[in-house]
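INFO  loader      accepted 1 record
INFO  loader      residues=349
INFO  predictor   begin
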Amino acid sequence: MSPVKALRLALSRTADALWDLALVTQGVQLELLDQEGAHEAVPDGLLLVLLDGPDGVAGLVAVDRNVMTAMTEVQTILQVTSLPVEERAITHTDAAMMAPLIDGALSRFEANLEGHPDLEMLSGYRFGAMVEDSRTAGLLLEAARYRLFRVAMDLGGGKRQGDLQIMLPEREIAAPQRPEVEQGPGPHEQRLMLVPAQIDAVLCRMRLSLHKAATLKPGDLLELPVDALGTAELMVGQRHRMARGKMGQMNGFRAIRLEWPFSMAQHEVAAALENQAPDLEGPTDTVPTAIDSDADVASVSVPVSLDQAEEDLPDLPPIDFEDGAFEGDETAFNFDPDALDADAEWDEK
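INFO  predictor   done
INFO  writer      dumping tokens
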């Protein structure tokens, strides 16, 4: 089970088990932040709770006033109301009211991650103490990288909607010692090395009306965002983001300079590759020849990506990689978007 799904189920089941409260997670976003990004992500005016973690590391929970009010109501008057949220100073009592939900959800979160490679990294956190303000919270976040879970939730059958943020540090986990095995190729290594693993470079995603999507034909031009080349993503399958980077050119070939740390996505990418059915004849792309204009769809999301079969895709403007090395001055990879030919044609898929 992925960490996102594990957290979603943990919150819902904790609220149901403790108070018979309907808590529906409307969405969970997972972000990977460096230390500076983590400090900037700590919001002002919210209830901030420090999480005590293993080996002295600390996490953080930020609760907005709607969720905080709902937790207070369900534990005092046994129901969630739709009364206006009171604008007042947040107290330690408010933090204590959040403790059962936080501890219960984190405990179930660990149980749901049983067998996941990141279980040890994401486990061991419990309610600690209230933090007075975002500046103090930022001083307590000392890890190099953090995982930020942004949860949008509905409480009490639509009576209140609010957000909850959980920030957990990435810790160095010692690799388990494995018994020594005889070196040499496995019995199926030759066959497994022939199984295709398709990775697509996606420049951007755009939304088109159903009518426009149905009338697209080869040669049509789609207007890309000006920052599309700087926000390219490597995708494994349809949903798993492997990395992010900048599109450029190196030694006459299209290249991506990776920027996104891999630690978050490695296990998810591996799982995606394992779940792909082997296709020894190679991957094929199937494009629908028509779209039912009567379909009840308001819009179509079109991923714009690069494919090896698109041989007529024009080369990007040359970029200095300092003799082909990706290391070096960060500005070596920059390019001037104004120098791009406005009439250059792109094929999107």
